[in-house]
Design a protein that fits this description.
single chain; mainly beta; globular; 28 strands; about 0% helix
């Protein structure tokens, strides 16, 4: 056991520290950062904060994969409620993997709204699609299905999911961030604010998980978990700029959607994980609702609010289209 100012590690683990909490807690103000601006580059030093009890995992570290060619297929959620595997070259559906209610159809009956597929993540070996189903229960549900086809299996609570190394994956919700392997929860931590955690990304070396976070106010910021030490840090842009939809590049930097108060996220920022220095930016070409890198951290797949898919990587960019129906989330 070791203690540090403003954080406390409370469990020693062989494989994981299992840390469980509820879905509510105190709601502190949005984390603040010291920010300086020189010309077009803004740097923001993240504050560190205790986020309940730390996630500690000893079995996730891996060698960073070498950059590879652009993936030839992806998995995606269609606007009418299907999870599909798609040929990235021809744009044709290879197979339907799962289907839930069409979220566009108004719910007119009594009781809860029918569940819809809200997100997807592809395992790093490309064999398994993890998908989230909302809105019931409030913390959502995560299932997995073989990309080659099969029967989906429920894996527990979660509104968002991110694939990690060695078969691990992280689920996030209003209730917690949980690291899982198969159906087993290896570690979980609850947020000290009401609104909780949203989209997440796992670093290529398996050490860090970056999670989009929010409190009861309008602020969006990142919580970065160091799985090797149990440390956490919060990261946000200066002034009224929030960071959303984290995605880790091969070099360990984060690509985030810049969220300005009252505006839509249409610009990406490339930031250093260690100190939040902004080292680059680019335009998505529309309002982004989802983004994810491939297993090598080289090729970024972006889902736009109009249902269109775009890719960035290798010094180039292009369109993958919308299959005529449109997408709400995708991964490759």
């Amino acid at each position: 056991m070791r203690s540090r100012r403003r954080r406390r590690i409370v469990g020693a683990v062989v494989v994981a520290a299992v840390l469980v909490g509820g879905c509510s807690g105190d709601s502190p103000a949005r984390p603040t950062t010291a920010a300086t601006t020189t010309g077009p580059t803004t740097t923001a030093a993240p504050t560190t904060t205790a986020v309940g009890q730390p996630l500690l995992l000893a079995a996730t570290g891996v060698a960073v994969p070498r950059p590879g060619p652009r993936p030839d297929r992806f998995v995606a959620v269609t606007v009418d409620g299907a999870l599909v595997s798609v040929d990235a070259t021809t744009g044709t559906v290879i197979r339907e993997l799962a289907r839930q209610a069409d979220p566009r159809v108004p719910h007119t009956g009594e009781g809860p709204s029918p569940n819809s597929i809200s997100g997807v993540a592809l395992s790093l070996d490309g064999r398994t699609a993890f998908f989230t189903v909302s809105p019931e229960p409030a913390c959502g549900n995560v299932s997995e299905v073989p990309v080659g086809g099969g029967v989906p299996e429920s894996r527990g609570d979660g509104n968002h999911v991110a694939a990690g190394p060695n078969g691990h994956y992280a689920t996030t919700s209003t209730c917690a961030v949980t690291v899982r392997l198969g159906g087993a929860a290896l570690g979980s931590v609850s947020p000290p604010w009401e609104a909780g955690y949203r989209s997440a990304a796992w670093s290529p070396d398996g050490r860090f998980i970056a999670v989009e976070s929010s409190n009861e106010g309008p602020g969006r910021f990142l919580t970065v978990f160091d799985l090797a030490t149990g440390d956490t840090a919060t990261m946000t842009g200066p002034d009224d700029i929030g960071y959303r939809l984290p995605a880790f590049r091969n070099d360990g930097r984060l690509v985030v959607a810049e969220q300005r108060e009252g505006g839509d996220p249409t610009t990406a920022k490339v930031v250093e994980r260690a100190d939040a220095t902004v080292v680059g930016s680019f335009a998505y070409g529309g309002e982004v609702v989802d983004q994810a890198y491939d297993a090598t951290g080289t090729w970024l797949l972006v889902t736009l609010a109009d249902g269109w898919l775009r890719w960035f990587g290798g010094g180039d960019q292009g369109d993958l289209g919308d299959l005529g129906t449109g997408f709400t989330a995708a991964d490759w």
